[in-house]
Amino acid sequence: ILFKNATAIESSARIDTVVFDKTGTLTRGQMSLTDVVVVDGEDRDDVLRRTAAVEDASEHPVGRAIVDGARTEGLALPTASAFRSVPGRGVTATVEALEVVAGRRALLADHELLGGADLDAAAERLEGEGKTAIFVGWDGRARGVLAVADTLKDEAAAVIGELRAMGVEVAMITGDNRRTAAAIAAQVGIDRVLAEVLPEDKVSEVRRLQDDGAVVAMVGDGVNDAPALVQA
């Protein structure tokens, strides 16, 4: 444990709120592909291999899980070009002369790739199971929704329980949608969930808690957590 200065030690005695990042902190950060749901008329393997082709250039755990899942199934991935990452929202790339978009509903909507009620219902079901849903589409419409799941660290619930027993409020911050985030939080006993937070907005959430009078400690593992860690 590194204490930067004496003030940090003094301040730690007054901590009343601890904010945990989710992926890689409360969870193992080792995601795996669990579901591939496609709209009527689409080939499941085609949807998976094109999504994996786009995600192959991504370093995000969700993207890696999709790529690993496709390769485990023996699918050959087509070449992708013009890859672009939209932080907190998803990725796009050109695959087989088509612009393929994979990520949140909102990202597909921005590209005018509209899905049907069945696809939305499937995503809601998957998110309710604590999984992260990734929509994918090209050529004017959404083609499917894929789900990946992470597993909680063995000690996560015990740590949360001990903090709550000390009278400390515990919150979880994540870019996941509210449904998925709530399902994960419920498994470890966290009531306060800050969901759908873009990486660059984590620091603002910590600052908002401080503005409300909280003395905040932040626990995170990723580069995009750095500003929030400094603020706490």
Primary descriptors:
232 residues, alpha/beta, 6-stranded antiparallel sheet, 4-stranded parallel sheet, 10 helices, elongated
Total E-strand runs: 10
The low-confidence parts are none
Strand composition percent: 25-35%
Number of helical segments with 4 or more residues: 10
Strand order of the largest sheet: 2-7-6-5-4-3
Structural class: alpha/beta
Helical amount among residues, as a percent range?
Answer: 25-40%
Q: What composes the largest sheet?
A: 6 strands, antiparallel
Question: Kindly state the mean pLDDT as a whole number?
Answer: 92
From the spread of the alpha carbons, the general shape counts as: elongated
Question: How many whole angstroms does the radius of gyration measure?
Answer: 19 Å
The helix/strand order is HEHEHHEEEHHEEHEHEHEH
Task: Measure the end-to-end span.
Answer: 16 Å
Task: Present the secondary structure layout.
Layout: H1 6-12, E1 17-21, H2 22-26, E2 32-38, H3 44-55, H4 61-72, E3 80-86, E4 90-95, E5 98-103, H5 105-110, H6 117-128, E6 132-138, E7 141-149, H7 156-165, E8 169-173, H8 178-188, E9 192-194, H9 202-211, E10 216-219, H10 226-231
Parallel strand pairs: 1-8, 1-10, 8-9
Antiparallel strand pairs: 2-7, 3-4, 4-5, 5-6, 6-7
Helix pairs in contact: 3-4, 6-8
